Amino acid sequence: MFAIEIWPWLSALASAALVLTAMAWVWRSARRLTPGTRDAATARRMAWLFALGALAWLAYALHAGYARLWQADAFLIFAQQNALLGLPFLIGGLAWVAALMLGRVFRLLAASASVGR
Prior knowledge:
Elements: H1 7-31, H2 38-70, H3 74-79, H4 81-115
């Protein structure tokens, strides 16, 4: 059984992993567009902006969500178990919603490029 003091760290690690996988998925979606086209350059620019926004969101969410738990004792951590389970889903979920919407934009760019040929 894990020591109760590492639960906030595991929760924060899960949050970071979800946001970073969303960033990787956006980059993979952006690279699917044909290189050298104007739409591909736009998609890569959007992927960079998404990466910056996702990292800013991760930093803000980790600070706002976990600030009280870093110095907490074992009883407070035990009392906040629901927050420790819910915060990664909130933080990662918002990043994934934005990633899926951006992926839809990339598919629309790819469809418009194939129609324009």
